User: Fold these one by one.
Assistant:
Number 1:
Amino acid sequence: MNPIIQALENLLGLIGIDQGVRPIGAFVLILAIVGGLLGLGFWVAVRRRWVRPATAAFWLFVSPWVFGFLLFTLGPMVYSLGLSFFHWDLISPARWAGISNYQKAASDPLLGQAIKVTLTFAVVSVPLQTVLSLAVALLMNINVRGIHVFRTIWYLPSLVQGVAATILFLWVFNPSYGLVNGLLGAIGIQGPSWFGDPDWALPAVIIMSLWTVGGNMIIYLAGLQDVPTELYEAARLDGAGRIREIWSITIPQISPVIFFNVVTGMIAAMQIFTQAYLVPSSTGSANGGGPGNSLLFLVYYLYQNAFRMFQMGYASALAWILLVMILVLTALMFRGSAFWVYYESARPAKERRRASRVR
């Protein structure tokens, strides 16, 4: 592939394209050539009646996504799987390692700490985000004057994420002049050092994760407004109170929405990286994983092995271990969803089991 790219860059140089943009130009040319070949192939297939015009049009329009998926997602995944069976430091040639990278992972105490920290963060932060965002959505679903302004105010923080939000909370949790310790001091409580304390660093990151509940709130709000009002009217005729309505009508009706947010939230929590990368360096911690490795998240530990210790094979093995963990947790959640997620077009799990026993 390198000679082809080099030839394309030389061609771009002949027509006066600047040296700095030639790699991008070569990439665009490759995409144009591939697209042209695909279009020509589909045109021939339609002319010879191998496929219908509608089928050819479908594949032609989705081909950019398919090409991007193969090139930027599936290709790197397959490459990393193969690389996990090698030792490679980015400089010397790769050496076959067999399953030694996975054997190393099985006895790596830092990996155990990283898994512990990551799972703890996911198990605590995801339920808190779910409860808080659902509670806010219930409040924002009330039809009062100016409610649209309050919805906007609650949603706005979710627009500030990643590095910006982390830097903001470094100031908020500053032990000397931060907002949190200032409020605690006003009521006579000595605040902790937060990111400098191994006992409080992870809780501080969990609190940070609640900053973006506005995004989930919007999804819950859409689900709440889709619940039929006739169900609430019937419940009120039966004498049901507000709490009973929420428990027996609202939560079952929006349970697919809750399930979606929980699954996506868990997957995102297992891949947390920005806070683990910025917080220790910003607080002057000598240990990249925070005080006492209390912020040694799995993705950050993977990054350390790949781009600081240049153990690309071991880092690839860690990436696949993380993928397996996410797949297992997701499968367990889907398995458990049959007992609490309600779909109007599907019978409850108890009825399905009863029907299978009858047959």
Note: The chain has two domains: 2-83, 104-358.
Number 2:
Amino acid sequence: MRYKGINHVALATNDLDSTIRFWRDLVGLRLIAGLGRPGYRQYFFEIGPRDMLLFFEWNKVRPLPEKDHGVPVKGSFGFDHLALEVETLDDMWQIYDRFKAAEIWVSEILDHGFIYSLYSFDPNNIPIEFSWANPEFDLRRNPRMQDSHPVSEALKGPERVSGVWPEVNEPTSSQERKIYPGEGSELRSKKNNW
């Protein structure tokens, strides 16, 4: 079995217009699909050739409270499920069979049009999805908007819209560019505990 990467990470918002402006227009991710209707939407952003970010729009969801990265919280959340993309449909059946043999609950394989998926939970009760990309329909090559009433920002299309955010007039000079060590920088050391 070979994984290709993360198919999508699913998060939630109650304001899809602001979310689109941030992820598409500020961050620069392409909006490649929109599904749903007022009160329940799913919009996909392309992270890279194989990775996407999904936002559900739920009217009553609240944004996460401000917190430092990696610090546990309780209460409101913004994470829905983790989806891992497999290379072949046979890989999906291997996962299905392995979960069944281990007597771990796993859904049937479902056809979502652009992906086939099966669902389960990890030992921490984190919802997981395994996906196989349907080669007959590629949203990255052919973005689609199927939302019956798209939000106004989505109607502007999948590509970055210029003029939404201020242009950079004074870029940081090469002399001012400083990079500070952070967690993980120690991975570059020659020491290896294996």
Note: The two ends are 25 Å apart (CA to CA).
Number 3:
Amino acid sequence: MATGTPTQVAPTLGYDAILDLSRTVPFRPRLSRFIFLRHGETEGNRKGIYQFPETPLNPAGEAQAAEAASILALASLKRVVASPMMRAWRTAAVVTDGRDMLPEPDGALQERLYMGLFGTPVGSLDWRQDPPACETLETFVHRTGHALSRWLSLEDDPDGDLLIVSHGGVLLVLAALTGVDVGTELRRNATPILFTRSSAGWEAAAAG
């Protein structure tokens, strides 16, 4: 797990609604393993505010992204897909620096869009709430769930793994789809998570 300044982890109040909505997403994965990476820390994370898409990593987040890159240095990555929001895109760029690959953008992997609340304090976040001028939870889970399902429907590649670089809310949708329990430690910024599937189902653990 990336070290440094502890960062904000959004509470999971309302996760039951994410679970319910995820059941409407066709999920037929063919990959048996992949890696998920939340972006590094931003000032928005540190201050606990709803973030604009162009919010960059802060110095701690840059260091966390570099540490994640170090953890993944020995991983065989075949493909890296990332949310185009600046914080995730920059994290993916740090991880792929020095590798013979570039991250691929997928706008459907962006964080939930709280347009009407950008720049305001998060406070007590309830995922079930649909504030005015914000993306509804149903739209968010449908958008991200279908994107994750599409990427996980790829065939295993003997030459390397898929890395998805995205956001904390997207990780909650992924957890709902795969049926894994991602506790606070795995949900922290820039923590590479290895997802593996067996006949017993999916498991998730810190990579490296």
Note: The chain has one domain: 15-206.
